[in-house]
Amino acid sequence: MHVGTAELAQILKYSTSRVRKLLSQGRVKGAYKSGKNWIIPLFNRMPIISRGKRGPKLKWRKRIPPKTTVNVNRNNIRNNKNRENPEPVISVKHQGTNTQGFWIKINGPCEIIYRPEKPLGCKASLWMETFASVEVKTTKSDIPLNPEDIIMVAGA
Fold this sequence. Notes:
Blueprint: E1 2-3, H1 5-12, H2 16-24, E2 32-34, E3 37-41, E4 68-72, H3 74-79, E5 90-94, E6 97-101, E7 103-107, E8 110-114, E9 126-130, E10 133-137, E11 150-154
Antiparallel strand pairs: 1-3, 2-3, 4-5, 4-9, 5-6, 7-10, 8-9, 10-11
Helix pairs in contact: 1-2
């Protein structure tokens, strides 16, 4: 779900000028400007705002939802070249679970991260992170997609 500055000011019980200040400082996660308007994503009906450098801790802030990490397994791609039944190559990690699949749909904003100096535990140096819900198709078949084959990994 996305809102504008006026709706966010009502949610946070801030003035619209304070909300615009937070947006201009880049402290609202996933917010972007489209023309003259701000588009602000909500996660569990609240924005994710990074903490400022001074002042007391925020009282309204709820727990940040867990991230979902998506990466591609290069070994499975290499091994699938001569197989009739290929293994899934996409790995979706959320709250300690690892779901393997052939197709994913991310229902919201995401970030692509390349960090070769500090890879993930699975040694991936390129991955995607999102707070939004992710759908994973776990079977290899042609389109159209069967709803029975899709698993909802994370709900926002």
